[in-house]
Design brief:
With 249 residues, this protein is an alpha/beta fold. It contains 8 helices and 13 strands. The strands form 4 sheets. A 5-stranded parallel beta sheet has the order 3-2-4-5-6, with helices on both faces.
Length: 249
Amino acid sequence: MSTFSPQGRTEIVRLDGTPARVLVVDDDPPMLELLTTALGYEGWTVRGTRGGQGAIKTAREFRPDAVVLDVMLPDMDALDVLTRLRSELPEVLILLLSATSQEDSEERFAGLAASGDGYITKPFGLEEVVARLGELMQQAGVAQARHDSVLVVGDLALNEDSRVVTRSGDRIHLTSTEFELLRFLMRHAEEVLSEAQILDKVWAYDFGSQANLVKRCISYLQYKIDAGREPMIHARGGDGFMITPAVGS
């Protein structure tokens, strides 16, 4: 799982260097999309769902480090959702989003606030949610701040400043194009990236007859990164390519 440190940003990652896992629960589709996009931009692995039942099911499978939970859900009371999440994942951090509307009694809101790890009142800025979540994860000791420009996926590390790539400490020599391709894959670790996306970001080509170019460069990269080791770079049928930590790394 990758970590991404753009110039001038402090990145919050798990203690082992992998991205924090965040579940977003909000019944408003535009807000859900905004939140998942903003948190994903931080380099975190993010999933979103619109209801309480979906939150419980997804949390069980996804095992998030933190949950961003809107208190107004269509199918369950947020306090019940919070209680269920705590029973399934006792260590999970829960950041509540509350409109503090007239629909929320003071008693109910007090119960929610006491059960969560923090809350933010709507309207809010996305930066506020990102910052508060990062603070909570660091305070709880599940994450740390990273100040350098190293992308890490399992035992593979790429230094964006020095352009040095290593796997299990062994240096791997890449061409400039291979480096850019690997950097793009690592910035989006565990995401399936289409050939069109790769062409656009690595070569700045429109998708057309250049698909073989992507396949060829991926094969070169696989030879250098995966030769004699547990594979990390995978083709996903006709959907594209992805990089994941090697099993056991």
